[in-house]
Specification:
alpha+beta; seven-stranded antiparallel β-sheet; two-stranded antiparallel sheet; 21% strand; binds flavin mononucleotide; NADH Oxidase
Amino acid sequence: MKKYPIILAVLLFAACPGDNVAEEYKLPEPLQTNRSIEECLAGRRSIRSFTSDTLTTGQIATLLWAAQGITDTARGLRTAPSAGATYPLEAYLVTHQGIFLYHPAAHKITLIKKGDKRVELTVACLGQVWVGSAPVSIVLCAVPERTSRRYGERAMRYIWLEAGHAAQNILLEAVALDLGGVPIGAFSDDAVSKLLDLDKAEDKTIPLYVLPVGIPKR
Ligand SMILES: Cc1cc2nc3c(=O)[nH]c(=O)nc-3n(C[C@H](O)[C@H](O)[C@H](O)COP(=O)(O)O)c2cc1C
């Protein structure tokens, strides 16, 4: 009889993978690959078909670092350039365990929402099925005020350009890690904002780009 509670607990855990999720995860140092930048540029292709494998914490940490990681701790400068170093971008991570926010300075992620929201993200991306089939998506968002307080109306142009820099970093890093991804611009702003709880963020935040990444199905 005693073993039934254990079996039940295992079944419940298997049924609710998002239930055992910590509020925050300190990420490991980015992995070091031996691929040249030219090899990654030549190998990058939009990938829309993924195996069902999840990514390792090291791979996720490396992709987030490529997007917005700190590369000069003294001055807080990052992998991607930023107009006036105003750093408007925020990188959200969507996995089978939940939705997380990346904190570049601490190189950690914090939980925004528990549970597998990849189907909701697919719907928000107008039903593009490859979004939901990827083990992770990085959603690049921005807090426009950080840049507009210095650059006024010019700021939105800078923010979009900056999202392109960060997105390309992610896509090239994916190739270096033997992964693949696709940049997604077609989505409902309102649906992605609602999914990521952007209305609860400290400052007004808008979604810019969705990047599903996984192991390419060959
Ligand atoms: C701004 C932008 C938005 C894009 N949006 C989508 C999208 O919503 N869905 C998609 O499947 N691909 C999207 N793509 C990927 C393009 O379709 C792809 O880059 C193009 O077909 C060239 O192929 P390649 O990336 O393999 O070189 C987007 C690309 C860019 C640059």
